[in-house]
Design a protein that fits this description.
Layout lengths: L1 H42 L4 H4 L4 H36 L6 H70 L6
Helix pairs in contact: 1-4, 3-4
């Protein structure tokens, strides 16, 4: 009976260990994908060509980031540009000609759009750090659990083997 209990426990621990290794592998892959995405986003050069280099698991997030960054940058540009343009006009000693004014407005729009994109990048970078920390903590927790399961599995195997030795017939001459 004791051997059967230890066999069941060993089998259960092997199953837990296998399940844990699978979860660790998935978390490690997520973490690597997140780091690769973070490196791409951090470079600031997110283009359709570079999206092809992303892991498939991060493609949706990258597309969401690009859409959000574009929308928020455009909104920031539209909200801020009139005020900046009027400040520029007030600082001119004489009224600028229409060509100068058009060029300056385009320059202001470009700069404000880029500032909006930079703000979206800062937000995404913070979110990436939070996600990476969560995955790292979960991975460490699972690795600790794997070590305890391994130790318990070793002890259960030893106890099972000891039970088998104790039950083995002992013939003496």
């Amino acid at each position: 009976m004791c051997i059967l209990m230890f066999n069941a426990r060993v089998h259960d621990l092997i199953y837990q260990k296998s399940n844990l290794q699978y979860r660790l592998q998935k978390i490690t892959k997520k973490l690597m994908d997140l780091q690769q995405y973070s490196a791409l986003i951090g470079s600031g050069e997110v283009r359709p060509e570079t999206l092809a280099a992303l892991p498939g698991s991060m493609f949706g997030r990258a597309m969401g980031y690009l859409a959000n960054a574009n929308n928020s940058a455009y909104q920031y540009m539209q909200q801020t540009a009139p005020a900046i343009s009027s400040i520029w006009m007030q600082q001119q000693p004489y009224p600028p000609n229409p060509q100068q004014q058009k060029m300056m407005n385009e320059f202001i729009m470009q700069q404000l759009y880029q500032q909006g994109r930079d703000k979206a990048l800062q937000v995404e970078t913070k979110l990436l750090k939070v996600d990476e920390e969560k995955l790292t903590q979960e991975k460490e927790k699972l690795e600790t659990l794997a070590q305890s399961i391994e130790a318990e599995l070793k002890a259960a195997k030893e106890a099972r083997n000891k039970g088998i030795q104790d039950m083995a017939p002992k013939y003496t001459a």
